[in-house]
Specification:
Elements (H helix, E strand, L loop, with lengths): L1 H14 L5 E2 L13 H5 L13 H4 L11 E9 L4 E12 L3 E2 L6 E2 L3 E17 L13 E2 L3 E2 L7 E17 L4 E14 L2 E15 L4 E8 L4 E5 L4 E4 L2 E8 L1 E3 L2 E12 L9 E3 L2 E13 L3 E7 L5 E8 L3 E9 L3 H4 L2 E9 L11
Parallel strand pairs: 1-14
Antiparallel strand pairs: 2-3, 2-23, 3-6, 4-5, 6-9, 7-8, 9-10, 10-11, 11-12, 11-13, 12-15, 13-14, 15-17, 16-17, 17-19, 18-19, 19-20, 20-21, 21-22, 22-23
Length: 353
């Protein structure tokens, strides 16, 4: 598996030597998703997001945190071939007050956050120089069988880094908005690309139980420029979602739906499309019993069944998710464990002096 992937990456490296611009699928490395809770409900999380992971799913939801939070996760995908790591920190600022003169509410609650994601393959063998001698001639064994010069094999890494700088604010009793500045760095051996993008999101509490959410990722179209002269254009993706919170059986039942709307003319890889606009739906459900333990299930936008569970400790949330791949015998199923720490101390509370 790793050697086949190495060959594929070398083909990518060769393509980067040409000056051209690519558009479709350029931002796939940012669409995997983070957090065991969100992935357990099939990534239908744009409306649910109300913790530190909201920076990724919907930056507007970050305004709803009451205390600073830290989150980390790590998983190895596709037979331990790819490492996927995530870390984030967010803290609230400001409080909602009442204007003593007008007796009207002033909404000053806001939050700030920083998140980092790395997707990478490490220790890839580079055999480009191993199949030729110093004169550029192929190496042969007995003049018949081609053999490499193993001393000429070197190793390189392929990695994608994304850093999210998030600001979110409560605008009214029911409306929250937020935005990301997104810094991108892509590396394949000696080649590298950089870019900057922007996300904007809103959450609206339509009723006490119904929440609607929308997150426009790469809102202005994100350009990743490579040192080879190649450019990649990441088209906008609109995440839409709705969630309903229902008190039942001494717990909270949360069914959620969502869809990713893309504008890349994905006629064959999407569930549905209207011209160049494609739609990839998600659906999920969570049952949280007495804020002690949670179970989750979902169906995500790439056609995988997901399952998950969570344990709530006093300050620490431990979430697990499982994604079933149709080609599990070749790719392997994906397991994800994430940790979320809440600094529930009075001195850390929103607006504390």
């Amino acid at each position: 598996m790793k050697l086949r992937s190495a060959a594929f990456l070398l083909m990518i490296i060769s393509s980067l030597s040409y000056s051209q611009t690519f558009g479709k699928y350029a931002g796939e490395f940012m669409s995997i998703g983070i957090g065991g809770r969100a992935l357990g409900v099939g990534s239908a999380y744009a409306a649910i997001a109300n913790d530190v992971t909201a920076s990724y799913w919907n930056p507007a939801g970050l305004a709803r945190i009451e205390y600073p939070q830290i989150a980390i996760s790590h998983d190895e995908r596709y037979g331990n071939l790819i490492n996927y790591d995530y870390a984030a920190f967010a803290f609230p600022s400001g409080t909602n007050t009442i204007n003593l003169e007008t007796q009207e509410n002033e909404y000053n609650a806001a939050s700030f956050g920083i998140s980092i994601i790395r997707l990478g393959i490490d220790g890839i063998p580079d055999t480009r120089k191993a199949w030729a001698d110093s004169n550029g001639n192929g190496l042969f064994d007995d003049g018949i069988n081609l053999r490499p010069d193993y001393n000429a094999i070197t190793f390189f890494n392929a990695s994608d880094w994304v850093a999210y700088l998030t600001y979110a604010k409560q605008s009214s009793e029911n409306l929250f908005y937020g935005a990301n500045v997104k810094l991108i760095r892509r590396n394949i051996g000696e080649f590298h690309g950089t870019g900057i993008g922007f996300d904007v999101g809103v959450q609206y509490l339509a009723t006490e139980s119904l929440v609607l959410g929308a997150n426009l990722q790469d809102a202005t179209t994100t350009l990743v420029s490579w040192n080879t002269g190649t450019n990649e254009l990441i088209s906008p993706t609109l995440k839409l979602g709705a969630a309903y919170f229902l008190e039942i059986f001494n717990g909270k039942l949360t069914p959620a739906v969502g869809t990713d709307v893309r504008f890349e003319n994905r006629r064959f890889s999407a569930v549905a499309n209207v011209g160049p606009i494609s739609f990839d739906p998600q659906v999920g459900v969570e049952f949280d019993y007495k804020n002690i333990v949670a179970v989750r299930a979902g169906y995500n936008d790439i056609g995988n069944i997901t399952l998950g569970a969570g344990i709530h400790l006093r300050k620490l949330d431990i979430d697990y998710s499982f994604a079933k791949f149709d080609a599990a015998d070749q790719l392997g199923n994906t397991h994800r464990i994430s940790l979320r720490l809440t600094l529930e101390e009075e001195k850390y509370r929103r607006g504390a002096e």
